[in-house]
TrEMBL record:
This is Murein hydrolase activator EnvC family protein. Gene3D superfamilies: 6.10.250.3150, Glucose Permease (Domain IIA). CDD domains: M23_peptidase. Residues 304-396 form the M23ase beta-sheet core domain. It comes from Christiangramia antarctica. The lineage of its organism: Bacteria, Pseudomonadati, Bacteroidota, Flavobacteriia, Flavobacteriales. One of its GO terms (molecular function) is hydrolase activity.
Length: 403
């Protein structure tokens, strides 16, 4: 009689492995689609900006974004191809094991049929029963004959099921190989596009290097404008803390006086560090937190108190966590800003063209707060997103999931 336990264990093992690999494949494909959309959006923006005869700096910044997204797409496609390679190897091994099990199952079944054929005459069955020493033994022999018949039927069904399973695996294997070939071909085209963009980048950078001083002066002037906006944001936070504390009877101007409910909300916010959703449905971080070399003119240092995220035209800013709107203010040079309190944590959504909430409103995670403004000169829809604990600046990338 064939041992079924190792076979069942094999099915369970490969079944669980397949589920895990399928989830990985879905996650990678989702991210690949997002990257392709990003690259398409940046490419369209670049074409639009070229028609507007935008500055070389803007063209290079757009091109750099496209190159980075293309590099990420190539890496991701390689990961998908490698995952398919592992799945193909797993399925090949699985097919080999199933074939061995099926061959053994068929051999056992053939022996059973042969033995059954030799003793299948009605006379031999009757003699087998009549030769019993007593009624109990005859009853047991009758039950054995029924069990033997049922087992033979079960073995036949097992063979049929495993044959279908093998056919399914072979079909999946062919599909996986086709998918891998398709990914490799796509990656080849993507690499060609990347090389073309790098050549354009080198040409633009050559013109920038010739006028580096002029561009450095433009960047410093723009940084001064950003610093003024940041000072306005800092002032708004200080005034909000002072106003809230005055209402609660506290004189502190540097940190919120928290109620038990506010403390619990702040603790909940902190527990979600690294897992918070993005403040836009989809977007690309174009400037990260802190002091850093300018992405084009590396000799000039720039500073950012939050992150800048380019998103779709008419894109909406969304609350990253439950909280209360503490301020809605116009900020000179940056349209409107919404400030949301999460206990003593603060999120700020700046550069909004339209606002959907007002001071005192309670908001929930992913609730739309307003429409992000589109710069008419550059064609970019950019959210300035900042995160604070009281008046302490925090790096949003450490808090937002996969930023």
């Amino acid at each position: 009689m064939i041992k079924l336990k190792p076979f069942l264990f094999l099915l369970l093992f490969f079944g669980n492995l397949f589920i895990l690999q399928a989830q990985d494949r879905e996650d990678l494909e989702k991210r690949r689609v997002e990257l392709r959309e990003q690259i398409k959006r940046i490419s369209e923006l670049r074409i639009s900006n070229q028609k507007k005869q935008q500055s070389v700096l803007t063209q290079v910044e757009d091109l750099n974004q496209q190159i980075r997204s293309t590099e990420d797409l190539i890496k991701l496609t390689n990961q998908q191809a490698n995952l398919l390679t592992r799945e193909i190897s797993t399925n090949t091994n699985k097919i080999g094991e199933l074939r061995k099990e099926l061959e053994q199952l068929k051999a056992d079944y053939a022996q059973m049929i042969e033995k059954s054929y030799k003793s299948k005459s009605q006379q031999s069955r009757i003699m087998f029963l009549l030769s019993s020493e007593n009624f109990l033994q005859a009853y047991k022999r009758l039950q054995y004959m029924k069990q033997y018949t049922n087992y033979r039927k079960q073995q036949g069904e097992e063979i049929k099921a495993n044959t279908l399973k093998l056919q399914e695996l072979n079909t999946n294997l062919l599909k996986q190989k086709e998918q891998k070939d398709q990914l490799i071909a796509e990656n080849r085209k993507t690499r060609a596009d990347l090389e073309k963009n790098r050549k354009s980048q080198n040409t633009l950078m050559a013109s920038i290097n010739k006028r580096e001083g002029e561009f450095a002066s433009q960047i410093r002037s723009k940084q001064n404008q950003i610093n003024e906006i940041d000072r306005e944001i800092d002032r708004m936070i200080r005034e909000s803390i002072a106003k809230a504390n005055k209402e609660s009877g506290s004189t502190s101007r540097t940190s919120y006086e928290l109620t038990p409910a506010a403390k619990a909300l702040a603790a909940d916010f902190a527990n979600n560090k690294g897992k918070l959703p993005w403040p836009v449905r989809s977007g690309i971080v174009t400037m990260r937190f802190g002091t850093q070399p300018h992405p084009v003119v590396k000799s000039v240092m720039v500073n950012n108190n939050g992150v800048r995220i380019d998103t779709d035209e008419k894109g909406k800013a969304r609350a990253i966590f439950n909280g209360t709107v503490s301020e809605v203010q116009a900020v000179k040079g940056a349209n409107q800003a919404i400030m949301v309190r999460h206990g003593d944590y603060i999120t700020i959504y700046n550069n909004l063209e339209a606002v959907y909430v007002k001071r005192g409103d309670n908001v929930t995670t992913n609730q739309e707060l307003g429409e992000i403004a589109t710069n008419k000169a550059t064609g970019k829809t950019t959210l300035h997103f900042l995160l604070y604990k009281n008046n302490q600046k925090l790096d949003p990338a450490l808090w937002i999931y996969q930023m």
